[in-house]
Amino acid sequence: MFNKVKARWPEEAGYRQILKVAFPLILSSGSISILLFVDRMLLSWASTDYIAAVLPAGILNWALLCPFFGTAMYTSTFVAQYTGAKRNERVGASVWQGFYICLIGAVVMPLLALFSDQIFAFIGHAPRIQELESSYFKILNFCAIFFLANTVFSCFYSGRGKAWTIVWVNITLTILNTVFDYALIFGKWGFPEMGIVGAGYATMASSAIIFVIYAFLLLSPSNEKAYATRSSWKLDIDLCKRIIRYGLPSGIHFFLDVIGITTFMLLIGRIGILEAAANNITHQIHLLGLLPLVGLGIANSILVGQYQGAGRSELAEKTTYSALHLAVFYNAAVSISYLLIPYLFIFPFFLGREETPPVELIQLVKDLLKFVAVFTLFESFVILSSGTLKGSGDTTFVMKALAFTSILLVIIPTIVVIEILHYPVYYAWGILTVNLIVLSYVFFSRFRSGRWKENRIIE
Q: What share of the chain is helix, strand, coil (3-state, %, to 5)?
């Protein structure tokens, strides 16, 4: 086995090549994971109510943002395929069209914020939690323009496999957000104590600064010379249509995936504040381990897009297998950590609190991490197989598969076990585990079929 690994390491589409692209993206995703972890950790120090409210509001905002985010994010696939086809003059145009598309979401999201009180009243959490959720949700929705634009600008670098710029930008974002969080949540350095609202304003301020940094980098003279990042600003209807044609199913895929999880989180919040807090802490710990894998998945999609653009589908397939080998090894290590040292992930959420956290809360988080340890083993197949399908343009299949699984395997069963049968929270997490096992089989089977190799998205 060691000889096989050694032989595959230097090969084209082998481990070294995928890690060369993935390493900065893993650092980038890891920095975002740390940002979210610290954000939630600081809120948990301030109040259990905050940690119970922040995830439902945040994940609902993310679910509504997903159709726009997924469509805009698909800009990276066009950048990758134009790069693979040696058509650099179309790279800048792709980024501009992605930016114009994301402006739709920048208008729609603030309009949805107008109904936040009614939305959370309908969900039916405790009145105090509803108030906190609504306040945080409104601020995040007004941040949409910065988040979506920064996503598109990052595609200029990720699509070309030049991700170190994204690393430094995201590290800057993490530092800024942490400093603003500390100042605004707890009222430090002359700022008023604002709690969960302060966390929302911290996100807005740090995202706005990153928007300015990205715009400055993208429009530099060197990028204009190589990729026409200034001169290709005009609306290209044909290119816009193609980005929407392939990107919108990807956006709907994100939406369907997240709406299932969102429904799951909101329903668990109806059980009680203790269950909501435990659920949210567990989910945040899961994200801490998941986002580096997401970085590997993005790297895989980029290389698949480049090989597809160059007409070398056999190397796109080999890249995916190389990424899968690395991902399975990583996920196994993460799963073992959740089982053997759960307190290492749990204690930071209570480190800054004077009162001792409830024993029931600690035990519940520890038990839920056992479910995470199981389904983490299957997430590599879901992320990497679906990433290959999207990177080649097979986005409609991904969308249809997630429409089926989100509704039939997550939303409906969760409603039944919580609202009708009133079962404990463990049954709901069992539903998530079954869903991920099924998805891993569906996407990996589609990848193995090879139908995606025939797709082409660029002219």
A: 85, 0, 15
Residue 244 lies in a domain: yes
- Domain enclosing residue 6, as ranges: 2-451
Domain contains 458? no
Q: What angle do CA 24, 311, 16 make, to 5 degrees?
A: 30
For 86-142, what is each residue's pLDDT tens digit?
A: 888 888 888 899 899 888 888 888 898 888 888 888 877 777 888 888 888 888 888
- Whether 248 contacts 67, CB under 8 Å: yes
459 within some domain: no
Tokens of 113: 């914020």
Residue type, 422: H
Amino acid at 239: L
Q: DSSP 3-state assignment of 187?
A: coil
Contact (CB, 8 A) for 52 and 134: no
Give how many domains the chain has, as a whole number. 1
Question: In Å, how far are 98, 104, 144, 147 from 108, measured between CA atoms?
Answer: 16, 6, 9, 14
**Prediction pTM value:** 0.70
Give domain status of residue 421, yes or no.
yes
